[in-house]
Amino acid sequence: MMWLVGSVVDTAIGCLVQSILGSFFTKQMEAWTHEIGLAEDIKKLELEMKAVERVLAAAEGRSIDKPLAQSLGSLRELLYDAEDVMDELDYHRLKHQIEKGEHLLLLRRLSFLVKAAVLLLKKEATRGRAN
């Protein structure tokens, strides 16, 4: 039995690739992966996703046999796994961003406390000179 590329399996693959490319390869993610040393790996992944897109586009509307259809099904499952990994990586990016923000907040609080202490010391020094 021959099937056409463009079936539900191929549509799912195309949607997964678009999801990964669209939601993951953002400026924030690019900056973070560069910061933690994963930029090169992520760039390779992006190139692979685009290669999958090109293969699907080239095969669209062509007849395929059952083994190729099964391979496309396997590819779909792999892309679901890849999407899960990407979601987990995005979670870690957000967690890192929050932790970094918490550190900045603590630094701001510390800075405020130091400035307040300096002002109090200056006030006390001025008061001591007046007596």
TrEMBL record:
Residues 17-99 form the Disease resistance N-terminal domain. GO terms for biological process: defense response. Keywords: Leucine-rich repeat, Nucleotide-binding, Plant defense, Repeat. InterPro entries: Rx_N (IPR041118). The keyword Ligase does not apply. GO terms for molecular function: nucleotide binding. The keyword Zinc-finger does not apply. Pfam families: Rx_N. Belongs to the disease resistance NB-LRR family. This is Disease resistance N-terminal domain-containing protein. It comes from Oryza glumipatula.
